[in-house]
Task: structure prediction
Amino acid sequence: MNYTPTVGQILQAKGVSRRGFLKYCATTASLLALPPSMIPRIAEAIENARRPSVIWLSFQECTGCTESLTRSSSPTVEGLIFDAISLDYHHTLQAASGDQAEAARHAAMEENDGNYLVLVDGSIPMGNPGFSTIAGISNYDMLMETVAGAAAVVAIGSCAAFGGIPGANPNPTGAVSVKDLVTDKPVINVPGCPPIPMVITGVLAQFLTFGAIPDLDKHGRPLAFFGNTIHDRCYRRPFYEQGKFADTFDDEGAKAGWCLYKLGCKGPTTYNACATVKWNSGTSFPIESGHPCLGCSEPRFWDKGGFYQPLSTGHFGSGAKLAGAAVAGAALGVAAAAAGRRRQAKFTREA
Amino acid sequence: MTSSNEIGVQAKAMHGNVAPILNEVMHAIDRLLDDGIPTTIDLASLPFAPGELDELEAALGTGELSARLDALGTSRIRETAYPGVWWIEHRNVNDEVAGRYLEVTRLPEILSSQDADIMAGRARLQEQFGKASSGRKTT
Amino acid sequence: MDLLEFARGPALQTAAYILVAGTIWRIVGIVMLKEKADYSEPRGRGGFFAALKVIWTRAFTAEPFKKATMYPKMMAYVMHIGLFATIFLFTPHIVFFEGWMGFDWPGLPNSVIFFIGVATVISGVALLVRRMTSPVLKMISNFDDYFSWFVTMLPLITGLLIPVRVLFQYEDLLAIHILSVALLLIWLPFGKLGHAFLVFITRGTTGMVFERRGART
Result:
């Protein structure tokens, strides 16, 4: 086992002062949605945390998750790569390619057997292995080979976590999520299309800080970031309670920044941190810029009806079937009345 | 970056996040005076409407003391117009806001010189002006 | 398919078919029954206006019963008006109807609806307590009465629990709420809740028969 310095030692070697370190811990606590009273514990944990080796696998994906990750401002992705983790394989970000890259992956797996983290973005096609391959290896084979010696797996983005757009109806590639395949290792789902940059780095920071799998919800998402709905933390929530809604995208309600429920906002059923962590270094989030939440961090969000269909609308078939039911009812009624009349006639005769 | 305030989306003041925070600050001041317990409010965890954070900052105003910290990016530590209430803003190396806090305390901890830094500084001092040293253990 | 998708898809759809078929079945079945021959000499015309008159007068209590029935009558009005408001003036519901019928109408603020919903539940509970304690009501009540009360209150209570988030998450509570509505829709045509569409037919019929016989209505 080679020597891995602690994060505290690395920061010290880089000349980061104790004040800087305390600041780092304070922002980490804030990121992890932990109360400021936890800062001393975080400081102690981070000081003694060891830099884990990280292998990032990209399958059926659009690289949006990696794009998102590189926008993380606190911690920055550079900070994370250089200080907190050792990113040993990421075929979009790494310089090496081909056999060299695959050799780096195997070396990292051997050196850190049982201790490395596997991050996955993209879904895995089960229909035909040829749908998506890397270095001639099918996505399925690469995933299973790589996770065998992993400490934990983090599924980044809705494709890796739930199948995402490749898995949307009719799912031509037979796409499945990481959790569908990896059953003997802890899998942390970090969904979103893409996930919030700070949430990706935050989950890694949480794992580094406490060295354990965080508390997860029923869909395998860390509660620290996915514990509240967008609706519950939305600054436009008071308008919902007051019954003030935008009816179209350009009416007075929309201009006044009223609730977007009627325009199809999926905030009430969507668990994510957009409303507080926000995007682009805390600039805003979809609802703040006037667009309803699409619910991108929820399983199969592509197949849950229209993005602009309000949450409370029924998902009915056609009115023709209702008319059919009415006709059937009328027929039953006529039959019942006829039977009633026969009984009436019989009764009158007997009387 | 263009904020949503500048592109015609307005959501004015009807959210009422400012008043309860000011009320919480008042209770925190009581706690500090009565029991000596400081309080930190993490502003990043609260859902603010556009412009509301500025509203809160304006409501608290500017006091006598302000400091700038250069460690992993700059930080601004400023006492508000209400003594004991500090507005703290941490920025990262890219000058993006990484955290915003209200601290109700006599002096924010981060302003004090830290033992680890004091010791490291002493070691540096000894290295440079070693002859004057009494040879005291430095770790 | 998760629970919510099932609830607002197939479950609600099936319930709607049963509601429509059942309602029309009962109305057609009753209207097409042969009228019993009445050989007595008519003492009044007993026509359409007689029906309307009783529909109107039965909305209020006759003088001799006023004192005795004041309390249940008030509670029943609170419950029915409350049900109307919570069903038809709550914006998410209006959005539901709009998605179905293509037009909408103004709603009340959600916080007001919440308050009305609580008042409706209280009136419902008061009426149930009365049914279970009054010796006469107890005697004439059967399974239908209690089950009808249950399926009416269930959507109301599950709906009120959604913003409170008790026991379940929002989406599960919403699914349970919709399923409880489906149960209500399925039961409505067949039990005593049929009064939703039969009330004016029965009162009108009573009016016509009574006036023909010369009873004071």
Observations:
- Residues 3-31 of chain C form the longest helix (29 residues).
- Chain C has a mean pLDDT of 89.
- The CA atoms of residues 43 and 214 of chain C lie 5 Å apart.
